[in-house]
Amino acid sequence: MRKISKILAAFSMAAIMALTPATAVFAEEMPEENFDEGFVVTDEAPVEASEEVLNESFPAIEYAALAFPEVWVGETQGVVIGVDATAYSDAILKTVYEGTGEEEAYPASVMDNESVVFEIPNAKAGIKALKSLSFQLENGEYVEMSFADLGYEDVCYNIYEETIGEEAEEFGSQIADVEVSETPDTAAISASVGAALSAGLSDSLSEERTNDGKVVIMLDPGKDDYHEGPTTKNQPGYRASKYNLKIGQYMAEYLSSYDKVIVTSSRNNTSCPSGGGSETDCINARVRKAINVKADLVISLHTNVVKNTKTRGVDIYFPNDNYNAAFGARGENYANHVANQLKKVGLSIRSLTSNTTRNVKYPDKSYADANLLIRQCKVNGIPAVVIEHGYMSNQAESDILFREQAIKAIGEADAQAVVDFFGLPKKTEEPDTAPDRANISAFVSRLYWYCLERQPDAAGLEYWTNQLMNRNVDGITAAYGFFFSQEFENRNLSNEDFVESLYHVLMNRPSDAAGKADWVYKLENGVGRIGVYSGFANSAEYTQICRTYGIKKGELNVTGRNRNPGLTTFIARLYTKALGRPYDTAGLDYWCNEVLDGRMSIDDVSTIGFFTSPEFKNKGLTDGEYVTVLYHTFFDREPDQAGYTDWTTRLRKGTSRLEVLNGFAKSREFNALKQSYGIK
């Protein structure tokens, strides 16, 4: 989290910055480690207030500036007002949440002859606007003026809900951690990894290089919450530290299904690896970790923001040929694999290159790599590659990159490049024990008893036992054969009884009330029985049951509405809320596939997918009816009078329905609604 001291340090530049009409400050086009955190001013240059509006007791305001264009919940915003405040004993800044009208007041933290500084905590998501400014006179009274009257209209900033926590925790759970020291201690590393593995972590994600031919990959998600990169108005929620970490998460998840590879990470949360030192300290800490884990390759993951908004495409940097020519060739080879994979997911390649500086030389007096991470890794015998996955400062590219489906596709593409480069084999799922006819027969008998509630007939028992013994079917296929047999269907089980049966067969336990209610809800709101079966069959519990009987569990791939139950139920409610009718299965399958295959985001489906459809337009709603449907769809509630009046007034004055629609879609309430369905 950024410190308020950093905010105050930036305020010395506020008077200069406030004269600049730009909304965000971008770094020059240079390697990302040279970026520094920007200072942001109001959306437009200050407009002088008229003399008729100003109160003569109110001081002259030279400028007003925000420290950050947007913040995360829990972070502190800084506001600086350029004013000589020596004649006043106190100052109060009032803010208001757009949409709810909730007001808050904050006393000044600093008052002097140049400026007044306010520190604004942010406890919840939303859009917070600066409303008014008050100064206390000698007689104890306050004189107050609105920011609008002062010439600063619509000074506001976004507060975003933190969403990376669960993902970072999941990512961290995949990475066995070791303590990094200045001097590598092989014995200590081995002991730490052994302890981590005994705690249940996969050996494919430990941090010890083994002697059985496995390669060690260290992922390096660029930036962190102390060395955050520049932001961009294109995607106000973008944070380089969190975005890069997500790419690493998806890489680790993808590589976990491959053998002969050990994956580690320079960080598995947004904290600085060096504990908050300089950029150089941070990079050196990452290099030390690569040395300690004896990495065969370091892959540094980044995205770019530059001044030139036309710049777009992927830049991949690999070592030059100096000092260790083999590293240059190896890095370029991997870079080409990355480029090939990223092109497959629709990204354009801007450059594959090595950058050399004449300001630094290697020990052999040859010119060094310009990138500090690549340079330090090379000196320590480790090849490193830096991947800049496109430019968030380019509107068209950022619209693609900022989607969760795109982040996943990018991470998996980077990982597939590792698979191709090293020729990694896919893991094979083998049961803990060799096939034993008695065990297999017991497994089949169990399916008869739990699914069909009868003893197995001799022919059926022999058939399924032979199929499993000969590996013609796996555990998922066998159970599917029972759950979707004509005999099972003839039982005419209710959704509640169907779910209860799944718990007993595939989890070996009775249902819990909350879990059962959730699955029944999904069945009643768009998810098919095969989709719910898939959720149980792919569970860790069923994996363990199959292992106990010496059976390979296998995999089940489903399509359409059965792929993601949370998404399915969310889209099903769009039919009832927006169109006023039940879903049709074909339509539900179509929209689910559009989202899960990355062709549309859930926001696209919720807005243009439904509200610009001929079916919706043919409803011929009045403005009031239109706004009411938006409240039902995006807020899941009836409209409040103030909000209803505001939106209908905007429509009456010429605001388009599409603009109003986007206003609802970008709201905090809609984000919370999506999260309640497991959608991010």
Q: Can you characterise this structure?
A:
It is a single chain. The protein has 680 residues and is an alpha/beta fold. It has four domains: 4-160, Immunoglobulin-like (Sandwich); 166-422, Zn-dependent exopeptidases (Aminopeptidase), CATH 3.40.630; 437-558, serine acetyltransferase, domain 1 (Orthogonal Bundle), CATH 1.10.3130.20; 565-676, serine acetyltransferase, domain 1. It has 26 helices and 19 strands. Strands 3, 5, 6, 9, 10 and 11 form a six-stranded mixed β-sheet that branches. It has a six-stranded mixed β-sheet with strand order 13-12-14-19-15-16, sandwiched between helices. The longest helix has 20 residues, at 325-344. The chain starts with a helix and ends with a helix.
